[in-house]
Design a protein that fits this description.
- The chain is an alpha/beta fold and 465 residues long.
- 37% of the residues lie in helices and 21% in strands.
- The structure holds zinc ion (ZN).
Length: 465
């Protein structure tokens, strides 16, 4: 007998063009897969979640997060890129033990899950040893989320940039040991430095390794000063643009470079919060759309900004609208015809486009029968979400992680009635605090960050990129 669950909700945002929005609607889950979506499915033999005041939608997808930094959360909230490079990259990163990487990935991924992000691409670039990689993967697995472990090597590869040190081939061992199949919740990708942060020779070798290991690629391009070095043009000249590559940031890429990405079928990830804070340039959302690329969204530096998709959607839409209105004003137009970026667009970026950027659009991103049942329920029976007049606006402008009542991953309920299911939350918090305390102790003996302190006032010494 199949395991069947029926969700009855006030509003179903299927994110599937054929199914659209159903008010009210029902979603039937069978053996972890979405079996049917409709207004009245006539099902009588399933476990029922009756949520007349809820929005039901696919889980969010975060396409780029340096999850290992979670125990240092918000330490960098007032930092420039220069502070960040000293404080995190030449400072705290080298003190992480494998257990700290584990604590970071577990904390960061559970935080994501709790806020309705069911798929997380962990951009893991502080892997000093194979044991760190093992611990990072263990943290992802223990969370219960769907995750992509994007192997980004560690300090040897990320110092003295542009680096001549090839990407660590430990990724081959990981492919064999943990990822012999892609048919599991946690899968493998490669987080490469690309032409901005490694020499051209090294970049060629890194791409070769990714092809050998047979993974998707994610790479930072177009951020700030580095981003104006024409990285996409170089990748194209070397025949390295492909449809299984995600380009993170893209701010300072030329319009012609965005067109090259579009031609190749590549995907993009916008991290508006950090891009605005650290001077990467205006989030490329509107320019990507002009080039025919619908971006995905990401949290990026979780030691600086919050880890939920509601915040990311808000900064994405606010920055683009501010940019568009500012440009119109400069052209003497006081009232634009209409806002070109809508709330619905941004919800699509956070779901279907995220799934596409992770190569998982056949599995998640919409409530389409046959896809995995990664589903969230947003409780709208609150003072901030009643009456429900516009679900898109509600999600982008008013909802927050506290409204996420239920989270389901591959048919398994991992959050119900606002609480994570089967998670020892106190243990996770304890591990995170222990890691934070250990790292602060280590800082005392490290000249680069010896003056580190908590509370928000500490600024590490600035280095120039
Ligand atoms: Zn990043």
């Amino acid at each position: 007998m199949a395991e069947r669950m029926l969700i009855k909700a006030g509003t179903v945002l299927s994110m599937d063009d054929d199914l659209g929005v159903l008010t009210p609607g029902e979603v039937l889950i069978e053996d972890g897969v979405i079996a049917a979506v409709g207004t009245d499915l006539g099902v009588t033999d399933a476990e029922v979640i009756d949520a007349p005041d809820s929005i039901v939608m696919p889980g969010f997808v975060d396409t780029h997060r340096h999850t290992w930094q979670a125990p240092l959360r918000l330490i960098a909230s007032d930092w420039t890129l220069g502070h960040y490079l000293t404080g995190l990259h030449s400072g705290f990163s080298k003190h992480f033990r494998p257990e700290d990487t584990y604590a970071g990935n577990l904390l960061g991924t559970l935080e994501a899950l709790d806020s309705g992000i069911t798929t997380l691409l962990d951009w893991s670039h502080n892997l000093a040893t194979p044991a760190h990689a093992d611990a990072a993967i263990e943290g992802l697995k223990d969370s219960g989320a769907r995750a992509i472990f994007a192997h980004g090597a560690g300090a040897p590869q990320w110092q003295n940039l542009p680096s001549t040190v090839p990407h660590s081939d430990d990724v081959k061992r990981l492919r064999e040991e943990f990822f012999s199949t892609d048919d599991q919740l946690v899968t493998l990708a490669m987080a490469l430095r690309g032409p901005q942060f490694a020499t051209k020779e090294t970049t060629l070798l890194d791409y070769q390794l990714a092809r050998e290991v047979d993974t998707r690629i994610t790479v930072h391009v177009g951020d700030g000063e580095w981003g104006r070095s024409r990285p996409i043009e170089w990748l194209r000249e070397n025949d390295l643009l492909a449809d299984d590559v995600t380009y993170v940031h893209c701010n300072e890429l030329g319009d012609d470079e965005l067109a090259m990405i579009a031609d190749s079928g590549g995907t993009a990830s916008v991290s508006a919060d950090i891009e605005l804070q650290m001077g990467h340039g205006w989030p490329a959302t509107g320019r990507l759309l002009d080039a025919g690329i619908r971006p995905s969204l990401s949290i990026d530096v979780c030691s600086s900004n919050g880890g939920d998709m509601f915040g990311a959607m808000r900064s994405t839409i606010a920055s683009q609208r501010g940019r568009d209105n500012g440009q119109a004003a400069e052209e003497g137009i006081s009232l634009v015809e209409e806002l070109r970026l809508g709330c619905r667009d941004v919800v699509e970026f956070a779901t279907v486009e995220g799934a596409r950027a992770c190569g998982l659009d056949d599995k998640v991103g919409s409530l389409t029968p046959g896809k995995q049942a990664d589903v969230i329920l947003i409780d709208c029976d609150t003072l901030s979400l009643t009456p429900m007049n516009n679900p898109w606006g509600a999600i982008v402008y008013a909802a927050h992680p506290g409204n996420v009542d239920t989270v389901i991953v591959a048919g398994k309920v991992v959050k119900r009635d606002g609480e994570l299911v089967g998670v020892d939350v106190d243990r996770v918090k304890r591990l995170a605090v222990e890691t934070r305390d250990y790292l602060m102790t280590q800082a005392e003996g490290d000249a680069a960050i010896a003056d580190a302190e908590l509370g928000g006032a500490w600024l590490p010494e600035q280095v120039r990129a």
